[in-house]
Amino acid sequence: MVSIAIVNQKGGVGKTSVTLGLASSAARKDLETLIIDLDPQGNATTGLGIYEPSKGVVNVLEDEFFGGIDKVSERSNWPSDCGQIPHVAASTPDLSVCEPRLATDPLGAQNRLSLSLENSNWPLVIVDCPPSLGLLTVNALFAADMALVVTEPGAWSVDGVARMIQTIEKIQMRRIDSKPSIAGIAVNRLGRTRDDSYWNAKLEEAYSEFQLPKIHLRTAVAEASAQSLPIHGLGNRSGALEASAEFDYLLTLLLEDDYSENNSDKEDSDGYL
Ligand SMILES: Nc1ncnc2c1ncn2[C@@H]1O[C@H](COP(=O)(O)OP(=O)(O)O)[C@@H](O)[C@H]1O
Ligand SMILES: [Mg+2]
């Protein structure tokens, strides 16, 4: 099993879009995947076509539930011709009230998600995190093998990523296995503007050792989420093929242990805005 937490304490940078893009690639590769939606906004849940979940990840967070994740997960509603359909431990509205309650556990509630994944057999688990450094994100970082930091190429993104990396390193020090490893930084929604190039260069300069391939700004990415479809299922829609290829490449690198940093320069200029 490989588990990846998709993190950034800032909202709107593309955590959910990257989660869904990677899920789409995994489906195409016939990889059985569990998506855990830890964001009370539930965008990954709806992006997977689940609108009124009857159960969800909150049920393994409210109390210790050893090995319970499968019992609170369901098959997503992506079309069956997209490959191996991902399952989802959905976000439900009560997830937002769960987080402050976790903080009141005198024994610490940071490892509830991790406990629920014990004995789990999913080849791939992707955890879409909320835009905060609270106990939901901390649970993801205690459970995951690796953390993928998603950022936009915007003002203050270098500072935001620095704060995220500090948090990951603090968790590494508290975990007996020193995980999660930092899988890298994926710059998302990279467009053609001078501002994007400037901030992208700043991120590359600050974190050269963590560079991953970019995900470009393409309306197909937003459309796939809005239509609750995998990006690979958008067919000939402009930019869909190119975006799918970017997510395929990113997933391949994440699943390899020792990818080359030089791969981050891969050329792909078609179809992005
Ligand atoms: N590569 C992309 N190209 C175009 N739009 C994108 C891309 N990535 C994200 N978006 C859009 O940006 C908005 C925020 O993305 P989202 O994945 O919800 O961010 P987060 O989960 O970090 O809050 C959404 O409307 C989404 O559709
Ligand atoms: Mg999100």
Question: Main traits of this protein?
Answer:
binds magnesium ion, 14% strand, Rossmann fold, 273 residues, 37% helix, single chain, alpha/beta, disordered C terminus, globular, binds adenosine-5'-diphosphate
Assign the CATH architecture.
Answer: 3-Layer(aba) Sandwich
Helix percent reads 25-40%
Bound ligands, each once: adenosine-5'-diphosphate, magnesium ion
Number of strands: 8
The overall average pLDDT, rounded, is: 93
Tally of distinct domains: 1
Q: What is the CATH domain class?
A: Alpha Beta
Topology pattern, helix = H, strand = E: EHEHHEEHHEHEHEHEHH
Q: Determine Rg (CA atoms, Å).
A: 17 Å
Q: Strand order, biggest sheet?
A: 3-4-2-5-1-6-7-8
Describe the model.
Strands 3-4-2-5-1-6-7-8 form an 8-stranded mixed beta sheet, sandwiched between helices. The longest helix is centred in the middle third of the chain and has 18 residues, at 157-174. It is built from 10 helices and 8 strands. The chain has helices at 15-28, 43-47, 58-61, 95-102, 112-116, 135-143, 157-174, 194-206, 219-226, 240-255, and strands at 2-7, 33-37, 74-75, 87-89, 124-128, 146-151, 181-190, 215-216. Strand 7, helix 8 (194-206) and strand 8 form a beta-alpha-beta unit. It has a single domain (2-259), classed as 3-Layer(aba) Sandwich (Rossmann fold). Helix 1 (15-28) crosses helix 10 (240-255). By secondary structure, the chain is of the alpha/beta class. The structure holds adenosine-5'-diphosphate and magnesium ion. Magnesium ion is lined by residues 15-16, 39, 43, 128.
